[in-house]
Amino acid sequence: xxxxxxxxxxxxxxxxxxxxxxxxxxxxxxxxxxxxxxxxxxxxxxxxxxxxxxxxxxxxxxxxxxxxxxxxxxxxxxxxxxxxxxxxxxxxxxxxxxxxxxxxxxxxxxxxxxxxxxxxxxxxxxxxxxxxxxxxxxxxxxxxxxxxxxxxxxxxxxxxxxxxxxxxxxxxxxxxxxxxxxxxxxxxxxxxxxxxxxxxxxxxxxxxxxxxxxxxxxxxxxxxxxxxxxxxxxxxxxxxxxxxxxxxxxxxxxxxxxxxxxxxxxxxxxxxxxxxxxxxxxxxxxxxxxxxxxxxxxxxxxxxxxxxxxxxxxxxxxxxxxxxxxxxxxxxxxxxxxxxxxxxxxxxxxxxxxxxxxxxxxxxxxxxxxxxxxxxxxxxxxxxxxxxxxxxxxxxxxxxxxxxxxxxxxxxxxxxxxxxxxxxxxxxxxxxxxxxxxxxxxxxxxxxxxxxxxxxxxxxxxxxxxxxxxxxxx
Amino acid sequence: xxxxxxxxxxxxxxxxxxxxxxxxxxxxxxxxxxxxxxxxxxxxxxxxxxxxxxxxxxxxxxxxxxxxxxxxxxxxxxxxxxxxxxxxxxxxxxxxxxxxxxxxxxxxxxxxxxxxxxxxxxxxxxxxxxxxxxxxxxxxxxxxxxxxxxxxxxxxxxxxxxxxxxxxxxxxxxxxxxxxxxxxxxxxxxxxxxxxxxxxxxxxxxxxxxxxxxxxxxxxxxxxxxxxxxxxxxxxxxxxxxxxxxxxxxxxxxxxxxxxxxxxxxxxxxxxxxxxxxx
Lengths: 474, 279
Hints:
heterodimer; A: alpha/beta
């Protein structure tokens, strides 16, 4: 084998130029070429104890797949990843690798860690573009399982069970499968054709995907059991957007990030002559510091805004978004107002003309400067207001991206399914088993807003537990 | 795909359709709503369930042509299909313990008020219905209301049919004359519901309103349908659409309802032009 590549730097990710990409919805990053992938793979030392694997929520055999890349055996690399992950093209793009696998990489002690995420994406894209292998339809074992929600946890759980021979039906409330991967994460970060391919793969495995069915409304969990399903996995996602409770949140031009992104991504409001409208604002403030906030801010830019702020109450260090997204957002010219917190959203009001069409539209957001005090329950230093430091940012649109609280539909209609004080479904961590027999759950419906990979991991865990549960009964 | 099994034009801008959707038909209750898309890439619009035929597995909707999507839908005929139809969403109208009710409907809101009146009637309650329209040509569902009501009052703005005036006038008269309704339920334009609430307030009668804000997913994900109710943010799709009328901030709801007014006007004109070209 060739000598390792001892360069301290990761191979850079080819990307669209910041000022060009900030005005289009095409994917920002373009992916490694085969040569670059092999060069980057050679930076991996294949450590015996492989700490990177411990950093991966689904324990992909990272050094093994990287070895295959070194050999130029990209199909082999894909097979290694497939043993652990069902959605590599998605995870290679959206996982926070810097706090997972790459944070444990020995090469990261002195220099950059190996670009594991970039390599994962390369392998998945190579497979999607080149593989001619027909999907093998597993032999049916005759048992039926229902999966609620077609986001990352549901797709993963459905895929794993289908491969074991289960007849799986996935129920999706919206008109399109994919969950947050289609309504939430924008095209420029995760092209929708990748998600569609994953859904199509599932269908080839024999999974039925029923859109336009809201579990808790159209059908209940109990009815699914009556219908002959032997187990149900609930991966219904995070739920209702939170607001701040400050004056002006109901003005026209104030969106939750969920609404803003859904209009743009799922309903395609970015198109010329869209059927679903979205405010084409000139100046936008996005409140929050997570991945969703970054997505909303960068979407606003691409919809034509000339100025976009991120308003976040802590400092850059605490910003929870994926590092690459923050860097991309900064390169694209998003103005980060760190250690600032909104206190009021202002609107237009013409006292002389109640019918003035401008009435009720957002004109600005008042923010107050913050400083970091003592650590709070989350271990992060608590931001405290600096009195008298208010400032008004003139904006015509505000997007609130401060998290969600769980959706009540399933809990309210499922006797025996218990939730915690935040409304998240209570599960046994090792199995995803809920308090109701035969019902398993995972993803944001359990944890509150988290990441795609954690949801996927939960879907995998539950699939395994469901298999054992059904086998134990038969 | 969901089949249109029946279409009936109720007045020049209001159409009734029955859509084949057995799962929805099995469960839908008065007060709940559905969301539909006419075609691929279409807009999602919420419409309140106007009744259902459980044997046929069909759900009745009644809509007014107000924008691009409703114009498009109105051009579909019996036997045609629409791409998406999901529900029943929202909570059903509460009927428990109500022996005497006044159902107030305005304009196309009467289409939604009717199943509520029918439900109360079915449960043996005394139903007084007050329905209002701009003029005689726009009156809809008169026979159906008659059948479901102990007493029916029809109002028109111009006096071309029934009594001239607003729905609040006979409501006020009834309350003043000592009609002891357990509940007044108002369904129609937000401004009408606001004034129904104002009319009821001095009498302290329980008043429920059915809100119909802008919505996208309808399942408690996007938050677009939020309202201020009792000083708190509520979501019409999962907390409603029925709310205690005394608690709703109607002025805010009216303002929010106009957010896409210009967009809607253009979309409607574009849709009309498209159909004109085709003819």
